[in-house]
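Q&A log
Question type: sequence-to-structure
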Amino acid sequence: MDTEIHQRYSRQILFAPIGKDGQLKLLQSRVVIVGMGALGTVLANHMVRAGVGFVRIIDRDFVEESNLQRQMLYDEEDARAHLPKAVAAAAKLQKINSTVTVDPIVADLNATNAEAYLTGFDLILDGSDNFQVRYLVNDVAVKHKIPWIHGAAVSSKGMFAVIRPGETPCYRCLFPHPPEGRGETCDTTGVIGPIVHVIASYQAVEALKLLLGATQQQNPNLEQFELWQNDHLQINIAKGKNANCPACGQGVFEYLDLTAEAQQEFTSLCGRDTVQITPVQPKQVDLEELSRRFEQLGGVEKNPFLLRFHIDAYTLVFFKDGRVLVQGSQDISTARSLYAKYVGY
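Response status: OK
Response body:
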C-alpha cells in the first residue's frame, strides 16, 4: 500500500476490524447504489470516503430545491440547473475522493435494464423510494446471488435489513406483496434529515462488514427506528425464509418479466403530482431537435441531460433515454393525452 493511500485512510486502517488488508479489499470492491435521493446520497458519501474502488450510482430524477433539506450531496446551483441527481452527485463525489471510480447512470431502473445495471457487483445498496424498485432489485439479487442491503425512511421512521441470497430470507419472504394503497411517502408525510442519516449509516456499516467478509458480525435483524418517539424495534429474521417464496423459493422472478402485470409503461409517482412514462424499449432522444420543436409552443429549459417543456399547467421533462415525466397531474389518462399530443411516438 503506497504512502498516499495509507495516509488518506489512516484512521480507518487503525480500526482493527479493517486494517491494511481490509482497506485493500475495499479498494478492490464494486458497489452499486440504487437511488440518489436522501438515503442514496448518504450511502454514496460513506462508500466513496471509505475507499470502495468502484461505485455506480443510478437515479432517474433531477435536483429540485425541496431536495436540499436532506439530500446531502446537492446544492442550490444543482437545483437551479435541474441537473440529474446522478450527474450532480458524481461531481461532488469525485471532489471528495478522486482516487475511486464513480459511475453515474441517469436512468429509470426497470425490467429492461436492471440486470445490465446491477450485475457484476459485490453488493447492491438500496436508496430507492418505492416498492416496485425494491422487488425488482430483490429479483436481480436473488437470481444472480448478489447481497443487498434494504433501507427505507419517511417522516421520522426508518428500517433496514441485510439480505444475502441463499443464506437469509429475501425481501419477498419478508414482504410477500406490495402494500395496498399509496402508503406514506416523503412528499405526503414529510421526512426529517436525522432519520435518513441513521438508516443510511447502519446500511453503510453493514456494507463494510459484508465487503470485508465479516459475515459473522452481520446484523441478523430487520431494524426499525422511530426517532421522534424514541422507539427502536429489532425483529430477528434469520429463520424467516419462505419455501414458497416466488423469488428465492421457486426461482420465479416476476419483476423481471416484461409480460407481467408488475411492468407499467405509465406510472404515477406517489405524492409528486407526476406521471412517469417509460418506453418499453429504450431509445436515444435528440434534445436539440425537441427544443426546436417545442420552443414555439411554450417555455423550454435545456441542459446536456434533459429538457423541460412548460405548456399550460404542465411541465414535460424529457430524458435522453426516452423517458418522460409529466408534472402537474397524477392522472395517467391526462399524461397519455399530453404525451400523444406533444410527443407522438
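Response note: The chain has a mean pLDDT of 91.
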